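Input (Peptidase A1 domain-containing protein):
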Amino acid sequence: MVHLAGLKLALLFGTLSGTYAAGLVKLPVRASVASPSAPLGNKISKLTVSVTTGNDQTFDNVLVDTGSSLLWVGASSPYVPGPNSKDTGETFGVEYDEGSATGLVYLDTVTIGSATVTNQYIGAANQTSLLADLDPLDGFIGLSFNGSNAHTISGIDGPTNTFFDSLVEEGVIEQALWSMVVPALDVAAGQQVGEGEILFGGYDASKVEGDIAWLDVTNEFDQFTWAFNMDAIYFGDSQISNDDFVFAYTDSGNIWLSLNIDSYLAVQKSVPGAAGASIGPAGEIMAFPANASLADLPSISYSMAGQNFTLTPEQYVMPSSAYATFGITDDGRHYTWFASAGSQADAILGQAWLQYFYSIYDVGNTKIGFANYA
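Output:
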C-alpha cells in the first residue's frame, strides 16, 4: 500500500457520460446567486464536507476526493435507510492506496451544504479498512469524472452518476463546473484558518487575483482523472522537472506535494542534510536538518499556462503541530510536505498545494483552472 501516491481507485480513466455532451463548448461562468455551495473543512490529513442522507443522518467527516468518483458513507457510524431510500440490491467495492470499503448500494436523497439531489447512488459501507491518520472518517465523496467508478457497483457495467453529475442531470445547476476554496492551516496551531467552500455551478470571481490559468485535462496515460500538463517546476532558480512537459494531476484526497523521483532527489540534493524520513504506514517524506533556516531555503514554483504558482518554505514545511496526525516524533528536523510520486506522475498537487490556490473544475469542457487568491 503506497499512502503517499494519493487516494486513487484502481480503475481506468473513463469517458464522459452523455450528461455533458451538450455543454462541451460552453465557457466557464461565474457563480450566480442561486449557485449551491457547501462548507469545506481542512482537518490536516483530509478535506471534508458534511453529507445528509438516509434516515436524516448527517455524516460530518466525508472526505472530498478529486481522485475518485463514488459517494459512500458508514465508515464510523452505519447508514440507516430512510423514507427516500431505495435498496438497489447491489453491492459496491472500492480500493484506495489508503485501504478499501465494501457494502450495499442505495438510491437516495443526498444533501451537501445547500445542494440537494433526489436520485443518487450511495454506498452504505459495512466493512472498511483505512489508515488511522484519516480518523475520524465517515466516507468519501468522489469528484472526478464518473468513468473511474465503472464496475465498482455490482450489476452495473458502466459508470454511475457522481453527486456532481446528479446536480447537472436534475437541473440543480446549469453549468457543469465547480470550484473549491481550501482553507489554509495556521502554521503555529495546525488548525484551519478562515472558511473553505465548494461552489457548484460556477466560480467566485471575487476570490480570484489576476488571470485564471486554464489547462486541458488529459487522459493520455489512461489512469488519472484531473490530469494535465504544466510547463516546468523550479526549486529556487533551478528547474527540477524535465524539459519536455510535466505530467501532473490534482488530488484533494492526497495531502502531499509529490514529485517524480528525479525531481524529488533534486530538491533533496539542493538542501545539505536533507533526507527521506519514514512516517510509518503513511510512507516516506522529505525532512530538512534541524540547522536549516527557513529564511534561507528556496521557494518552489509550478509554471503552467504562462503563470507561476509559488510556495514559500513556510508553506511547504509541515507545521510541527501537525506531526502527531502522521505519527511523527519531533526530533528537531523540519519535516516537509514533499513526497515521491514514483513514476505515477511528474507532480501530484495534493491538499498542501490546493490550500494556497483557487482551483476550478470544468467538467463540461474537460479543463481545470488555477488562480491566486485575491
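Helices lie at 163-169, 261-270, 313-316, 351-354.
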